[in-house]
Amino acid sequence: MPIKLILLDADDTLWHNMRHFEAAEQAFADMIAPFAEAGIARSTLAAMEERNLELYGYGAKSFTLSMIEAAVELGGDALPVGGIRQILEAGRALLSHPVELLEGVGDTIEALAGLGDLVLLTKGELLHQEAKLAASGLGSSFASVEIVSDKRADTFRSLIARSGVEPHQAIMAGDSLRSDIVPALQAGAWAAFVPQALAWTHEQAAEPVDHDRYRRLQSLADLPALIEEIG
Description:
Layout (H helix, E strand, L loop, with lengths): L4 E4 L9 H14 L6 H19 L3 H16 L5 H16 L8 H9 L3 E7 L2 H11 L7 E5 L4 H11 L6 E5 L2 H10 L3 E4 L20 E3 L6 H8 L1
Parallel strand pairs: 1-2, 1-4, 2-3, 4-5, 5-6
Helix pairs in contact: 1-2, 1-4, 2-3, 3-4, 7-8
């Protein structure tokens, strides 16, 4: 049966994202260097991010707060005010960097729009995700946009049900095994993994290589052919 609903992730699926977070993390490590070596700085920040997700959610603002808290934990009372200023500048850069589409995304989106209802399904801070979508120039290609706090199997079940299609008539494509692939398969949809060079450890999961509705793609440009093959 043909695919009727095409769900796409945004960050690091349509446009570059993690490389900007990597730059902010490097700025954090450089700032905190008088108090902790780079490995400890990065592991402390990663632990702080995990601890804060339930309170702050995902996105650049959450990451900035975690950088500040990690800096305070590592530097204590000796942490200079200028260090906090540097962290805030790195966080502001995360919120204001240009949106750069991944190679071939524009043509791929155009092809996908002719194959089914195209829906953007992304998580993160609402205003920032809306701003990035507007800056991308891709907004008019999507039938709808869903910005959620997290992606779970119930997220996919609800969206698919509201779209009026059967789960096996939907496909999700994204760069996160944890957020894009595993919950989509649990909801009964197809899932296409599009790995990227930089990946947040929080988004890793076991790859479901033996699942009959799972495919690993070299790039998003391979998705239209996969959808036609499924149909």
